[in-house]
Amino acid sequence: QSALTQPPSVSAAPGQKVTISCSGSTSNIGNNYVSWYQQLPGTAPKLLIYENNKRPSGIPDRFSGSKSGTSATLGVTGLQTGDEADYYCGTWDSSLIAVVFGGGTKLTVL
Amino acid sequence: EVQLVESGGGLVQPGGSLRLSCAASGFTFSNYAMSWVRQAPGKGLEWVSGITGSGDRTSYAGSVKGRFTISRDNAKNTVYLQMNSLRAEDTDVYYCAKGQGSVKFNELDNWGRGTLVTVSS
Prior knowledge:
Radius of gyration of chain A: 13 Å
Shape of chain B: globular
Distance between the termini of chain B: 40 Å
Order of helices and strands of chain B: EEEEEEEEEEE
Strand content of chain B: over 45%
Largest sheet of chain A: 6 strands, mixed
Structural class of chain A: mainly beta
Oligomer: heterodimer
Shape of chain A: globular
């Protein structure tokens, strides 16, 4: 069982917007920065968002992140078929003294 | 261009040992923390261990603490994961990943392609 809770799957039509939630606790999300990763089928994960809402260079502004209390959210607008992937949230857990990930959310673009 | 290339995976019997290596290039290696992350086929990500850029601090997931040891050789631009007392549940693809700073075990901005470790008799 993951320290961070994500919905197993989300779906939306091309061009639409989707959000993926990530719920944790005060020992992780509540007091640490959240990152988000995209894993396309058969590839290694890729950093999408860091420090809750910052995008590495090359990541389109269709991807956004936010955090409130012990929860974080990844938003994806203007959905494309190429966005179909697994998405993971991650953060430091001050009690476990380890990085923790969510269980992952499979995004389907219908 | 940042490159991370893992090696050392393979088939090992339960109770056995294996050492993974990750050769890095394209950045000043000693300035960045490095982590190992694993993933079972069709499953989610699990962070295994991290080491600071200088190598003075390490951290481990509870599932591997006492069995795995992370280390680095900044002269060789290589990070290692020594895995002892291996169990069937350690069967995973192991990724090497670079942190965004010298002490950041989270915020993994570059990943290798992974190396498969299979623990089976």
